[in-house]
Specification:
alpha+beta
Length: 109
C-alpha cells in the first residue's frame, strides 16, 4: 500500500468512527502519537493536545479534537482523482500500453 493510500484510509477510518474511544484506539494502533497538554500559567493557547501520525501534526483543545483535526488535515492532503474522489494511485490499475499499439496509434495521427 502506498503512503498516500495509507493516509487516506486512516483518515477515512477515523472520520467514520462514532465514539471518541474508538478513534483514540484506532489512532494509536496505526502508530499515532498523542501528547497531552502541559499547563503553562499565563499561556492558555499552549494548553493543546497534539496528534501526530505519518508526519502530519495537528493540535486541538481535547484529545478527540486533535484526532479529528488530524483526520481532516490528512484527508485534505491526499490528491484525489477528478472523476470519483478516490485517492490517486500511481498505477491506477493499468499497466503500460504495448509498444506496438503505441506506434500504430502515433502513426495514424
Amino acid at each position: 500500500m502506498t503512503e498516500t493510500v495509507r493516509i487516506y484510509s486512516a483518515s477515512q477510518d477515523l472520520l467514520g468512527r462514532k465514539w471518541t474511544y474508538g478513534r483514540v484506539v484506532l489512532f494509536r494502533s496505526l502508530g499515532g502519537t498523542l501528547r497531552a497538554p502541559e499547563p503553562v500559567s499565563g499561556y492558555p493557547e499552549e494548553n493543546c493536545w497534539q496528534a501526530d501520525l505519518f508526519g502530519i501534526l495537528r493540535t486541538g483543545d481535547s484529545c478527540d479534537a486533535a484526532i479529528l483535526a488530524w483526520a481532516h488535515a490528512a484527508n485534505d492532503s491526499v490528491p484525489l482523482q477528478g472523476t470519483d474522489g478516490r485517492p490517486d494511485c500511481p498505477y491506477s490499475g493499468q499497466g503500460l500500453a504495448p509498444t506496438k499499439l503505441m506506434e500504430n496509434e502515433i502513426g495514424k495521427g
